[in-house]
Write a structure and sequence with these properties.
Keywords: ATP-binding, Nucleotide-binding, Transport. This protein is α/β, with parallel strands linked by helices and 200 residues long. 34% of the residues lie in helices and 24% in strands. It folds into two domains: 129 residues, P-loop containing nucleotide triphosphate hydrolases (Rossmann fold); 58 residues. The strands form two sheets. A five-stranded parallel sheet has the order 5-6-7-3-8, with helices on both faces. A three-stranded antiparallel sheet has the order 2-1-4, covered by helices on one side.
């Protein structure tokens, strides 16, 4: 059965600098949880621990074992010589329907650059490709690290709506998704999240 994810007394230091100190909170199953904290508080370190890219010094994470993870990092981490379609297929799978990808690109105003190398795209366009890659990949837990940064106000709102629609559509189909949104933008957290936590 799906369950909540529990972060229990998590601590992490780098060269004697304490980044996380006995951090504890719960990410509720099937909900969008916004994690609010200022820059430098250790949010990205926490995400790296959840993704298995870092080990905590102490504490534990319960309920995440066996979950499929998808993520948007602060950096886009796209393959610059590949098109948006090819970048998305790297994680969605080589047999993922191209028409589904093209429809997603159209809904996020990227259809005109579907075949261009990503290195030729603007920063805002690349950011949207990175988000689509995460949303179209198979996942149970979606980790979003400042996913809308670099987008102008109108585009940001449109892409937030697209993200919410994608998550809600999956839930309506009986495939609820758990989302952790890391941000320092209060308005963004209030618009997107079912719950806002400030554990730092």
């Amino acid at each position: 059965m799906p369950e909540d994810i529990r972060i229990l007394q998590l601590s992490k230091s780098y060269h004697e600098k304490k980044v996380l100190k006995e951090l504890s909170f719960t990410i509720r199953y099937g909900c969008i949880t916004a994690l609010m904290a200022p820059s430098g508080a250790g949010k990205t370190t926490l995400l790296r621990i959840l993704m298995g890219l870092e080990e905590a010094d102490s504490g534990s994470v319960e309920g995440i074992q066996g979950m499929r993870l998808s993520a948007v990092f602060q950096e886009d981490r796209l393959c610059g010589n590949l098109s948006p379609v090819s970048n998305i297929r790297l994680t969605a799978g080589s047999h993922f329907p191209k028409q589904t990808i093209l429809r997603a690109l159209e809904e996020t105003d990227l259809l005109s650059c579907a075949s261009q190398p990503v290195r030729e795209l603007s920063g805002g366009q690349s950011r949207r490709v990175a988000l689509l890659r995460a949303l179209l990949s198979p996942y149970d837990l979606l980790l979003l690290d400042e996913p809308f940064k670099g987008l102008d106000t109108d585009t940001r709102l449109r892409i937030m709506d697209y993200t919410l629609g994608s998550v809600r559509q999956a839930a309506a189909a009986g495939n609820a998704k758990t989302v952790l949104l890391v941000t320092h933008e209060e308005a963004e957290a209030s618009y997107m999240a079912d719950e806002i936590i400030r554990p730092f």
